């Protein structure tokens, strides 16, 4: 798994999303997140890892802290043997005040092999996240939080899709997807083919000396030669 994830980091997330369409019949609406989840660390490039999911309340008044699940999941990440991505559903009573982590927690997570967070809450200390090379995909920045309470969940809904522990996350400055398991082991090789296809296709797109019909014919020829097939 670790080798597969390392290979997939070489591709931007949009290319991976396009390539999935050639390999796997899973409907796209089941695996790409909506635009409410944005990168606040775009300079870090693609983030690829195995999801570890939980729920968190960082906004409700008069909360008592409960960090037990956080510490347990840190231990689990350290034993994972592959990069992980912490996927956290914000469940507090004041959604606009959710702040799931800052750079202190990010450093601790990163030391355990976690390369980033995906959450429908907020984060803070972006400069510290960048200095740690810890990626964050979220609803934005929030300056503070109430007492933090974490709890386990078998699955969470974030950005309009369901994420379970063990799902593979691929994300970059443009958004977040989960990779359908049925195509994971073939995806890197297919992405190489697709990158070559898109390069040739874009040369055709920008030409001004071809009619639309001529472009369609050339694109069909390039695709036929690409080695890619529709699922």
Question: Could you please describe the fold and organization of this structure?
Answer:
The chain has helices spanning 2-8, 13-23, 68-79, 103-111, 126-132, 184-205, 212-226; strands at residues 38-39, 47-57, 84-90, 99-101, 114-119, 122-123, 135-138, 149-152, 155-158, 161-164, 168-172, 175-179. The chain is α/β, with parallel strands linked by helices and 231 residues long. It folds into 2 domains: 27-179, Glucose Oxidase, domain 1 (3-Layer(bba) Sandwich), CATH 3.50.30.40; 186-226, no CATH class. Strands 1, 2, 3, 5, 7, 8, 11 and 12 form an 8-stranded mixed sheet that branches. α2 crosses α6 (184-205). The chain is elongated, with a radius of gyration of 20 Å.
Q: What helical percentage do the residues reach? A: 25-40%
Shape, principal axes of CA atoms = elongated
Low-confidence parts: none
**Total domain count:** 2
> Mean pLDDT, rounded to whole units?
97
CATH homology group of the largest domain: Ribonuclease E inhibitor RraA/RraA-like
- How many helix segments? 7
Beta strand %: 15-25%
In CATH terms, what is the fold-level topology of the largest domain?
Answer: Glucose Oxidase, domain 1
Largest sheet: 8 strands, mixed
Alpha-beta classification: alpha/beta
**Secondary structure: number of strands:** 12
Rg, Å, rounded: 20 Å
What is the highest CATH level, the class of the largest domain? Answer: Alpha Beta
- SSE order: HHEEHEEHEEHEEEEEEHH
Termini separation: 23 Å
The CATH architecture assignment of the largest domain turns out to be: 3-Layer(bba) Sandwich
């Amino acid at each position: 798994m670790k080798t597969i994830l390392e290979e997939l980091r070489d591709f931007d997330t949009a290319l991976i999303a396009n390539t999935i369409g050639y390999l796997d019949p899973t409907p796209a609406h089941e695996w790409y997140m909506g635009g409410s989840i944005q990168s606040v660390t775009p300079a870090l490039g693609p983030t690829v890892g195995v999801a570890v999911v939980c729920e968190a309340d960082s906004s409700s008044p008069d909360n008592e802290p409960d960090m037990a699940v956080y510490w347990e999941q840190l231990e689990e990440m350290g034993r994972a043997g592959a990069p992980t991505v912490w996927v956290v559903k914000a469940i507090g009573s004041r959604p606009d005040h959710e702040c799931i982590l800052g750079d202190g927690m990010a450093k601790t997570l990163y030391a355990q092999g976690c390369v980033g967070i995906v959450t429908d809450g907020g984060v803070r200390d972006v400069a510290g996240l960048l200095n740690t090379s810890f990626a964050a995909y979220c609803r934005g920045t929030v300056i503070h939080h109430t007492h933090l309470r974490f709890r386990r969940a078998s699955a969470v809904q974030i950005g309009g899709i369901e994420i379970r522990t063990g799902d593979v996350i691929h994300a970059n400055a443009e958004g977040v997807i989960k990779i359908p398991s049925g195509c994971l082991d073939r995806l890197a090789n297919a992405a190489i083919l697709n990158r070559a296809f898109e390069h040739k296709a874009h040369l055709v797109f920008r030409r001004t000396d071809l009619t639309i019909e001529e472009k369609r014919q050339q694109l069909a020829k390039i695709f036929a030669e690409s080695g890619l097939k529709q699922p």
